[in-house]
Design goal:
Layout (H helix, E strand, L loop, with lengths): L28 E5 L2 E4 H9 L10 H24 L6 H23 L8 H11 L2 E9 L2 H12 L4 H9 L3 H4 L3 E6 L5 H8 L10 E3 L2 E11 L6 H35 L2 E2 L1 H11 L9 E7 L2 H10 L7 E5 L2 E4 H10 L7 E4 H23 L6 H25 L5 H9 L13 H17 L6 E3 L1 H10 L16
Antiparallel strand pairs: 1-2, 1-12, 3-4, 3-6, 5-6, 7-9, 8-11, 9-10
Helix pairs in contact: 2-14, 2-17, 3-13, 3-14, 4-9, 11-12, 14-16
């Protein structure tokens, strides 16, 4: 069987689902698939976290696309079960990892988010701040290292517009030098907008990370709103409350972690750490304080440490209030972490800091287990959603790998020739392949027997709830390239 990999591919799916006429509507149920229900809140969270939501379409068509995507991900898990994908060892490891993350999220929901309080005064001040209009430009890259280079070039005197053209290549933003024009602050991505709030006129931000990548932002001008429009405030109030809740949750989370870890007081054994560090380093680099390249705590390093440090495996590596973690426990813990989340470092200090983060999560996870969160219904539902999404993404990626484009298609995307209106909506060859793969996958999934019901009246209500003119701008998002 082909080995499973974890794919996080943003999807734009347009599907048709038949509605069962005689299904009784529940107050909070938007759709059902066999015995599974999709509530309005679950669907709202789903589309709000989809960075591609509303790019190709808006209004009711966009919501139909999104509910169809949700349902087809659910059905993809049935296909994954049938194809034995869910019994693959890599899939099982990925699910176990997601269970850990879901338990930690629920721990924070219970101990932090539920304690957040928001006043009417805060909401009104947020409304005034979010309606400040700003004129900005930015440079974007998916690579932090590349963005660091752009930052160095700016500091050395390179023009912002020249670097923006280099970063955006052939896009509209390349022609404008990264200029986004005038926008209300509340219409921008939260991290992007928060960075702008801290800038003075013409000031350039430090590197800003959003869900799409990394940015350098320059505030060219701004205009503040001083009058509160009551009707507009009421429309924006739910979104404002969500933003403030998220900001306060971050602050309370940091305080919660500091207090919790102070109580646990984890202390590493310096001798064991040095033994690990010596095994991690290539022999040629053992005299260097900073390595010439980054090292990932790979499986080969884990294997080497386990073999060379065998006499020390049962010794305590980390001591804390409620117990200890042996060297073997640490190495076993590294094995279960997906490679993309393993410690990456160039110095002993960086490795020590990342081990500290791992110890923090281990202590928090132990607390979550004490509270029985491994059986919590919310946790179980999040793990189920992970399995569904990953099943769909795996099959979509598999389809893409098997699609070969004819010479006429290759020529179009290479030369950007005219006269092919059916291809004009695709920015790249990969996007065309993605669209074709999606259609093929949909045709397979639609054959899976299922009783499906969608409450289109509730979907209409959801459409009216969304202020499509004020939705978060996703100007930096491009389809696969």
């Amino acid at each position: 069987m082909k080995k499973y990999q974890i794919y996080f591919i943003p999807l734009l799916i347009s599907l048709f689902i038949a509605c069962t006429e005689n299904k009784q509507s529940n107050k909070n149920v938007l759709a059902t698939v066999n015995d599974r229900i999709i509530t309005q809140e679950e669907f709202r969270l789903f589309y709000e976290l989809d960075p591609n939501f509303g790019i190709d379409s808006t209004g009711l068509p966009a919501l139909k696309d999104e509910i169809n995507l949700y349902i087809y991900q659910m059905l993809a898990l049935k296909k994954a079960d049938h194809d034995k994908l869910t019994s693959d060892s890599i899939f099982i490891r990925a699910v176990k990892w997601e269970l850990r993350q879901a338990m930690l999220r629920e721990l924070f929901r219970q101990d932090v988010e539920n304690k957040v309080e928001i006043s009417e005064k805060e909401l009104k001040q947020a409304y005034i701040n979010n309606n400040m209009t700003v004129h900005v430009r930015h440079i974007f890259s998916k690579s932090k290292d590349e963005m660091t280079e752009y930052q160095k070039e700016l500091k050395s005197g390179k023009r912002f517009t020249d670097l923006a053209r280099k970063a955006f290549k052939d896009s509209v933003l390349a022609a404008s030098g990264g200029d986004l024009g005038w926008f209300r602050l509340g219409d921008l991505d939260p991290e992007f907008g928060s960075a702008i709030k801290n800038l003075e006129g013409n000031e350039i931000s430090d590197i800003v990370q959003t869900k799409w990548g990394f940015h350098l932002i320059q505030l060219l001008d701004y205009k503040k709103q001083v009058i509160l429009n009551e009707s507009d405030f009421l429309r924006q109030k739910p979104v404002l409350e969500k933003k403030i809740r998220r900001q306060k949750s971050v602050e309370l989370s940091a305080k919660y972690i500091r207090t919790f870890m102070t109580q646990q007081n984890p202390q590493p054994d310096e001798r064991i750490f040095r033994l690990i560090w010596n095994e991690v380093l290539p022999a040629t680099d053992r005299e260097k304080l900073i390595l010439p390249r980054q090292i990932t705590f790979s499986n080969s390093i884990i294997k080497k440490c386990a073999a060379c440090l065998k006499p020390y495996l049962k010794e305590s590596f980390i001591n804390y209030r409620d117990g200890y973690i042996s060297l073997k426990g640490f190495l076993d813990g590294m094995r279960v972490i997906p490679l993309s989340h393993r410690p990456v470092f160039k110095s002993a200090r960086e490795l020590s800091d990342q081990i500290g983060l791992w110890v923090r999560d281990e202590c928090l996870l132990k607390e979550a287990k004490k509270k029985g969160l491994d059986k919590n219904p919310k946790v179980m539902k999040e793990v189920q959603r992970f399995k569904e999404e990953q099943s769909y993404n795996f099959f979509l990626n598999e389809k893409m790998n098997n699609i070969s484009a004819p010479d006429s298609i290759l020529s179009y995307f290479k030369n950007k020739t005219t006269g092919r209106p059916e291809l004009a909506r695709f920015h790249t060859l990969q996007e065309w392949q993605w669209n074709k793969a999606k259609k093929q996958l949909d045709e397979e999934i639609i054959k899976i027997p299922a009783e499906i019901f969608i409450d289109f009246q509730k979907l209409e209500e959801e459409n009216k709830r969304i202020n499509w003119d004020r939705r978060i701008r996703m100007f930096m998002v491009r389809k696969p390239s």
